[in-house]
Structure formats: C-alpha cells, structure tokens
Amino acid sequence: MQVIVRENNVDQALKALKKKMQREGIFREMKLRNFYEKPSEKRAREKAEGLRRARKLARKRAQREGLLPGKRTR
C-alpha cells in the first residue's frame, strides 16, 4: 500500500493511509488475528457475515425497485 505525501503534509497522508487501510479491511484483520479462532467459529462467523451481506444487498435492491421505502431521515 502506498500513499503520496504532498507538500510535507504528513497528517493528510496519514489520514489517507488510514482510510485506505479501513477500506481494505486491514484493521479488522489485525483484530481477528489477535487471538486464535477455532475453525468452527471461523466458519460460523463467515457464514453470518455472508448472510448479513446478502440481506443488505437484497434490501438495497428492493429499495431501488420501489418495493421498500428508502432510507429514513431523522
């Protein structure tokens, strides 16, 4: 991963790096690797994540097609 520092602005470059790492899921990966995860727990977690992703995608698709109301504003 590479971030360009422009005009000696390290703070901006650091912010960009953190954003890239967040998008790539590196922080999440580091948190997961902190402790050993049993293979059965890993399978269960990945299955739950997949279900969550599928439901979210289906919900967004239904909103686009007008079957569900859009996002609520508070």
Automatic annotation (TrEMBL):
Pfam families: Ribosomal_S21
Entry-linked PANTHER family: MITOCHONDRIAL 28S RIBOSOMAL PROTEIN S21 (PTHR21109), SMALL RIBOSOMAL SUBUNIT PROTEIN BS21M (PTHR21109:SF0)
Keyword Ribonucleoprotein tagged: yes
Biological process per Gene Ontology, one example term: translation
Name this protein carries in UniProt: Small ribosomal subunit protein bS21
Entry-linked NCBIfam families: S21p
Region (Disordered): 38-74
Feature: compositional bias, Basic and acidic residues: 38-52
Compositional bias ranges of the Basic residues kind: 53-62
Family (UniProt): Belongs to the bacterial ribosomal protein bS21 family.
